[in-house]
């Protein structure tokens, strides 16, 4: 049983891959001739590497129905030990098939092989292990309540699975973000219907093979491929049989999903966009700060929700930091994803590159100085068909410019000087988003003070994207709703029933 047949990447419903020949959209509900499908393109070359079978409404319905049945037939009541062992076996199996996941991640995204190995696939393994640990160690709330006349009552909460969870994820770190949600959902006894991004269908399908191999019951993990509204994403989030939606993606889509589920009042967990700031004080070790900052601006070609796009630098070190970042940008190696020398991949698609290039134009119109980049690179041979972009740094912009206000999601940052701590906090918090921030200083007290003053879900001091999976993750404002990670995930993926016993 494999995720791909020939060039088809298939849906996975009720414990089996659905053949594209099995009706139009696989659900038997389509009337169009031929298979509903779309091309999977390699962003590094622009070449089509597979065809993806698009689920129709009937197939999405089959997936939700299968998930419900799996819950009813026992999955929701499985012993915690059984579930956590299954998660650990899944982690082991991903490790055994590590290079297949690496290859699928690269085919989906064009990202460098070193990153796919060290971040994406390694984190998928870690996600399964971490949430097995969290669930195994979880307790439950209880209170002894004093009553009149010396009597007491015992209150305790029993946590039950949320039910059928719709998991809708984006393309930037597809396997990492998918497993970040699927692992806790399954650990808590839910069944999931996953809708991967249309740009990156490969790893979600491969994960279906692994979960079946380790013995996950049919219907507990389902994958439906397709787009948003009017396709699998829209059908899934509008389905009356889902009990909640966990979504990672853009703020605009999050708002749309919220509207879709509003009539049935389903819980949502939203991890949305960001326009993240770094604040760099003049007491830093410049080289160390530049090393951290360049990671935070350029990692994954700037396509991480946590990436820094606004760098506020105290005036006396502004030129040093700017010079250091330009030098680091010059060291990045764009190229063949399979080469271990490559540090930087392409953007996900030509459409996304057009969007990023639109911001290059806006920066120019706003009078920005381009310190480095600003062009589409020529890499030669096959790669010129890919969606490559130069890492780009600007000065001369202010918080009033759209380039500094809107999420670009590319390897770009605006460098802006400041004089005082108070001014820096004001500039960093002057945004509609509130996902992440980083503070760079050697003054311990200032580091804590400024990090706590950031109006964000995650603030780092002298580092970036350093995660302990037990800690809360999420954003405020346009950056999201709710938190996942550790106990926060348990809260979203379960519903408590409080039992009160008069003693
Ligand atoms: P997107 O919002 O376009 O798509 C995300 C997912 O939603 C995809 O699977 C898509 O098919 C689906 N979708 C689109 N419209 C839908 C609809 N109407 N109903 C249901 N599903 C729909 O986002 P993207 O371009 O794939 O990803 C990039 C965005 O994700 C950026 O804004 C980035 O900041 C954000 N992101 C946030 C986090 C976080 O943890 N906060 C992490 C990664 C990415």
Automatic annotation (TrEMBL):
Looking at the keywords, is Iron-sulfur present?
no
- Matching Gene3D superfamilies: Aldehyde Dehydrogenase, Chain A, domain 1 (3.40.605.10), Aldehyde Dehydrogenase, Chain A, domain 2 (3.40.309.10)
Keywords, A to Z, come to:
NAD, Oxidoreductase
| Residue intervals of the Aldehyde dehydrogenase domain | 37-498
**InterPro entries found in the cross-reference section:** Ald_DH/histidinol_DH (IPR016161), Ald_DH_C (IPR016163), Ald_DH_CS_CYS (IPR016160), Ald_DH_CS_GLU (IPR029510), Ald_DH_N (IPR016162), Aldehyde_DH_dom (IPR015590), OHmuconic_semiald_DH (IPR017628)
Which top class of enzyme applies to this chain? oxidoreductase
Q: Show the GO MF annotations.
A: oxidoreductase activity, acting on the aldehyde or oxo group of donors, NAD or NADP as acceptor
| Protein's UniProt keywords contain NAD | yes
Question: Per its UniProt entry, which superkingdom is the organism in?
Answer: Bacteria
Q: What is its EC number?
A: 1.2.1.85
- The positions flagged as active site in the entry are 271
Tell me any Pfam family this protein matches. Aldedh
Family in the record? Belongs to the aldehyde dehydrogenase family.
Q: What is this protein called?
A: 2-hydroxymuconic semialdehyde dehydrogenase
Organism of this sequence: Streptomyces coelicoflavus
């Amino acid at each position: 049983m494999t995720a791909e047949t020939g060039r088809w990447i298939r849906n996975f419903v009720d414990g089996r891959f659905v053949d594209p020949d099995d009706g139009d959209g696989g659900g038997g509900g389509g009337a169009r001739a031929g298979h509903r499908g779309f091309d999977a393109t390699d962003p590094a070359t622009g070449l089509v590497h597979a065809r993806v079978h698009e689920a129709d409404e009937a197939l999405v319905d089959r997936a939700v129905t299968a998930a419900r049945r799996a819950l009813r037939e026992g999955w929701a009541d499985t012993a915690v030990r059984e579930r956590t062992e299954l998660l650990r076996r899944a982690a082991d199996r991903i490790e055994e098939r590590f290079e297949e996941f690496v290859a699928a991640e690269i085919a989906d995204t064009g990202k460098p092989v070193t990153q796919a190995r060290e971040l994406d696939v390694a984190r998928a393994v870690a996600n399964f292990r971490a949430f097995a640990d969290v669930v195994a160690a979880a307790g439950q709330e209880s209170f002894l309540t004093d009553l009149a006349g010396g009597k007491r009552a015992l209150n305790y909460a029993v946590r039950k699975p949320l039910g059928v969870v719709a998991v809708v994820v984006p393309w930037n770190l597809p396997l990492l973000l998918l497993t970040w949600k699927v692992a806790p959902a399954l650990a808590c006894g839910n069944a999931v219907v996953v809708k991967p991004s249309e740009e990156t269908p490969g790893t979600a399908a491969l994960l279906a093979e692994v979960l079946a191999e380790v013995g996950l019951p049919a219907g507990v993990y389902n994958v439906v491929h397709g787009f948003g509204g009017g396709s699998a994403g829209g059908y899934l989030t509008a389905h009356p049989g889902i009990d909640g939606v966990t979504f990672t993606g853009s703020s605009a889509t999050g708002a749309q999903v919220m509207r879709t589920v509003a009539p049935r009042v389903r819980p949502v967990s939203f991890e949305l966009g960001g326009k993240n700031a770094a604040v760099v004080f003049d007491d830093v070790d410049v080289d160390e700060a530049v090393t951290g900052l360049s990671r935070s601006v350029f990692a994954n070609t700037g396509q991480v929700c946590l990436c820094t796009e606004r760098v506020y630098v105290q005036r006396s070190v502004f030129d040093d930091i700017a010079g250091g970042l330009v030098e680091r940008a010059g060291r990045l190696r764009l190229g063949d994803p399979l080469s271990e020398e490559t540090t930087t991949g392409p953007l996900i698609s030509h459409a996304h590159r057009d969007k990023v290039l639109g911001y290059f134009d806006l920066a120019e119109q706003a009078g920005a100085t381009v310190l480095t980049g600003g062009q589409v690179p020529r890499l030669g041979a096959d790669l010129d068909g890919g969606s490559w972009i130069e890492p780009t740094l600007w000065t001369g912009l202010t918080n009033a410019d759209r380039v500094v206000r809107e999420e670009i999601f590319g390897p770009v940052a605006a460098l802006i000087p400041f004089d005082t701590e108070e001014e820096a906090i004001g500039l960093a918090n002057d945004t509609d988003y509130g996902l992440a921030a980083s503070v760079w200083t050697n003054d311990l007290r200032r580091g804590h003070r400024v990090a706590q003053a950031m109006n964000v879900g995650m603030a780092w001091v002298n580092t970036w994207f350093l995660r302990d999976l037990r800690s809360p993750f999420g954003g405020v404002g346009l950056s999201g709703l709710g938190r996942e990670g550790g106990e926060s995930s348990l809260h979203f993926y379960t519903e408590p029933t409080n039992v009160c016993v008069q003693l």
